[in-house]
Amino acid sequence: MLKSKPNVLTLALVAAGLSVMFMPQAVKANDKVEQPTDTKQSIELNKPVTNATDITANQTTDEADAEPIERILVKGYSRSLIDSLNSKRFGDTVSEQLSADDLGALPDVSMADALTRLPGISAVRTGGQAAEINIRGMSGGFVFSTLNGREQVSTSGSRSIEFDQYPSELISSAAVYKSPKASLIEGGVAGTVELQTVSPLSIDKDHSFVVNARGMHNDRASEVFGAEEYGSRLSFSYQGKFLEDTLGIAVGYARLEQPSVATQFIGLAYNDSKELDGLANDTNGPIDNPDFEYISEGFEMQHLGGVETRNGYMGAIEWAPVDNLVVKADSFMSRFDSESFARGFRAKLGGRNASVANPVFDGNSMIGGTFNRTSKSYTRVEIVNDDNQDFDEVNSFGVNADWQVTDRLNVNLDVSLSSAKSDFRNGLLWSNVAVDANAETPIFDENVSISYLLNGLDLPDVGFNQADAFSDINRVMVSKYGIYPFVNEDEMKAYRIDFTYDLNTDFISSIEFGARFSDRTYSNDRSVFEYGNDGAFSKSEPPLKLTEDMTTVVDWQGDFSYFPSYLAIDLDAALNAWFPNGIPQPVQTWGNADGVVDPQGYTTNYSWSVLQSGEVYEEVISAYVMANINTEIGGLPVTGNIGVRMVDTDQSATMLQNVDGDINLGAQNIADSIGIINQNYVSTVQGVSYTDYLPSINLNFAITDDSQIRFAAAKVMSRPPINRLAGDISASVSDDGEINGSSTNNPFLMPFYADQYDLSYERYFDEGAFVAAVFYKNIDSFIDTIAIENFDFKANGFNVPDYIVDEVSGEQIATTNGTYTTAVNNAEGGYIRGIELAYTQVFASLPDAWSGLGFNASYSYTESEVQSITSLGGDTSTQDLPGLSNNVVSATLFYSYEGFETRVSARYRDEFVSEQVAINEQVVNFDAETVIDYQASYQVNDALGLLFQVNNLTDEPTKSFFGNQNKTGTLQYFGRQFYLGFTYAM
């Protein structure tokens, strides 16, 4: 077991805390804080107060009789902004807040959209929707998320939740904690996002019922054959108090049914190389390496369409049987189903054995040329008709009891269950061009020529000698069908107890301490089915002749209109015609697969699906102690906290160890998804345990009545993504017999650790606020994926064949060792630092119609010395930290008057690094983007309100590239989304 000792930061924070605790005191214990007063139709921006503490619901008689705090009355979106500022102002950490009115007045499409309005927070768009958030230049893997204070597992297979699973209509508030405190659950190097559902006893009304309905339209759907243009959003919620306000009930339901639309070009990675053989360089610059050039695998042009359906459910029962006890049970469930298609064609350039004419280079990487198929190359164009289904489930249940034992002692107990499941089925239908599809024995057309020239972040120039055949049923034949299911499940049970003891001394207001235990199990299950051949016509699994009733000729439109037409194929009609008696079992040849039992009479070896399936186990015990500070230093009121959190982690995963079928060593019969039994392996569980100590301090200095300075320092940690702890191992053999493998996951991976420091200045005035902050994080290390060349696979326990059989010639080809890729904790760490500026102005004091005008804006600059090496673009180049944009800007201009409210919001981020759209585990560069949304509403009367929204007003695409902008990655256009609907409240 690894045991880590308190570091220098730990000792420094303890010393700082002790110096604060024992400073001469000028503030008495009974100097209470005047807190914000709730109003039903208005909100106040409070005057700063001395010794600000957390806002509490229980106030003393002295507080109740105190002189009312000066306030400015505002409504609507302005009210929600001031609410958020008050929450930020009186919080005890560096944080950003979103109030309930902010989320509910004009609901955002997802929580990610709402959070990106906060300083230092940006989003990564997937399918046009903001799904993952980045905080202070760090990707979603470093962001920890909770719901009602409870850690949430994810359908993504990582630790970052997918925020589009959480309907904004069912979330009452949100906070982003940029500095931790000891009482917060560990896990967020970048920050912690806390989502809250409603507390039914806290509402002002005895009963409240709200219905929200909207229709939606995507203006690019008409360009995609088979895509849905219209969708809808519907939600309702009820909150009520009974039995003299001792029993509260809240229920909510939100349904989203929206089209998923995109038109895209995808440039594939440069994963092959070719000797130059005297090829001329058509560019002006010299070739750096005269021996070879890097070649892209190819490119794709696709229409994407489908429907996303999300059903969200929320419920809560809150009971206060006596004055000092509140018991709350709450639940949240989300069901997110997506059925989508991807149609178009894929150009496979053919690798090192293709014949290339007129090459164009960027450095050593070929970005253009004419590729002609040879007898040894795989140059071809595939007509693709993919069918994807994704069924996601998220559940969160909890029971909480809050007991005020005495005037000073409070005890809080919490029990929770969080679970998630994702069932993803990737169905692929390949078609290829025949010389004559009507022939008795069709022949694969090997007369293939592909010309292309990349144009950076614009669409490329392309040409195909077979272009006319792509839409001709007399030439195109279905040649392969495959299904690749991937099911992952994640479940966590957690138990927590927290104590708060009020001291009311001159320097410590209270002590908090507690413990938490969590037990998490993650599993993934890979399987596969394949029939046919995507690179030729199989004799044993012959291709399908298409008919007119199975196909539709699809033309490209708009900027893509110069691409050649292609055949969209009705998947069900094609499969029913191809397999009238049901889909048969596939028959393919792997070679010498010793130790594999073939009970069904076929020789396919899909052992990789077994090796990539397994479970991860994680048990965490944590405890903390924290002192809440309420004192004076040099005449300045100081509040905050100092504490330390101890975390003990035990992680392990199942792994398959190759024992060459030796029964004495425990060899087991392990069956894959289609019944082939592998006798070579024994299942083991391996892992590691470690203990961490995480000190933290947060100090808030009230330097004037209207301004304060915050300082925070802490040691923080983020565990590796849960799926990267899985013990998956796989190997494959290429057509020329080379073995390559990977174990990109590793159950021995350790967390990311960082020492971080925050300093901010906050200035509050009657109608807004100005905030300036600087931060610095020093991260110890990162997970790196390294490649070991000439790796001896057989000697290291891999089940690989001695030879493969050429499908055409029948020749046995001996296998050779290639590259093994695996994950380790050896990537060099470094600093991340930046500044954040935020300004909010509400013109509530202006006369009449102008009083509803206002704006808020934020700017952040982040830089890091952390870089990684990538070769996806061929030439080796450096790459920034995933999630980091140097400059991030968000701004909202809003106006309201006599029931009418409107706002326009814009968010900008410059270039950043993230996973390639639609290409898993390819981390590439993304171009800068500006996303603009518009929203408006009109309150007809006290109950009825109308609303109109436009998301992605300028139809901003997502654009990515490999290394530099000359090597095109993905160019994806989503379209605008229009919403029109109403809200009814009673």
TrEMBL record:
The keyword Signal applies. Its main location: membrane. Belongs to the TonB-dependent receptor family. Residues 1-29 form the signal peptide. Residues 485-953 form the TonB-dependent receptor-like beta-barrel domain. Residues 96-191 form the TonB-dependent receptor plug domain. This is TonB-dependent receptor.
